[in-house]
Design goal:
By secondary structure, the chain is of the alpha+beta class. It has helices at 64-82, 123-133, 148-176, and strands at residues 3-12, 35-47, 50-61, 89-101, 107-120, 138-145, 181-194, 199-203, 217-220, 223-237.
Length: 238
Amino acid sequence: MKTTLLNKAALTTGTALLLTTMMGYAHAEPTGYDQLTFQTEVKEEIQNDEVRASLYKKAQAADSKTLATTLNTAINNAMKIAKRYPSVTVSTGQQRTYPRYDKNDKIIGWSGQANIDLKSTDFAATSQLIADLQETLVMDNLNFGVSDTKKDALEQKLMTDASRAFQQQAKNLTRAWDARGYRVVSVNLNTGSNYPRPMYSSMNMKAGVADESVPSQNFESGNSTISVTANGTIELNK
């Protein structure tokens, strides 16, 4: 995919800015004069390969023990169903209970909610699992993003690209300021991600699924933008 380069430059004089990542050059201490501080940025758009979802069970009961039994039973059954899909990572999420009061502040019952969280790069399996779980649970949220493995690999590449872009910009600025050369005072690499609002298609009934069953969804995961910036300061050699 296409990589975008963005450059910003500003001239600073006087005391050098707070140093971040020091480059190991065997030069004398910077003088604090003829310094340029600027930033380069590289970006790459990448397709989301991971889906995360959360479903929940809400219930009410006259006492907390009955409520806990209802919620625990629902989540335990959901975990059993999830075991049919080994490619989906499943974990129990938030669970909370709270009393219900009448107008005289007397406890008249209990309400509660228990969540189950899903994470996977297998969209088809996750979609079907969500459909199975929605027969007894309610969808809370659905999000798409880039898996850690894929994101880390791309960030490593972009850090190299950002470093090269910083060096190239340093050379360009050196020529623009009619300097003989430059020394690096400091460089800091920062990573960032932009995850757009997730999109997914409307539900489509699969052939052979009973009318009372919840149909699975066809996911459209969309793309995310991963970026790395290199900002720092160089000192010109006049």
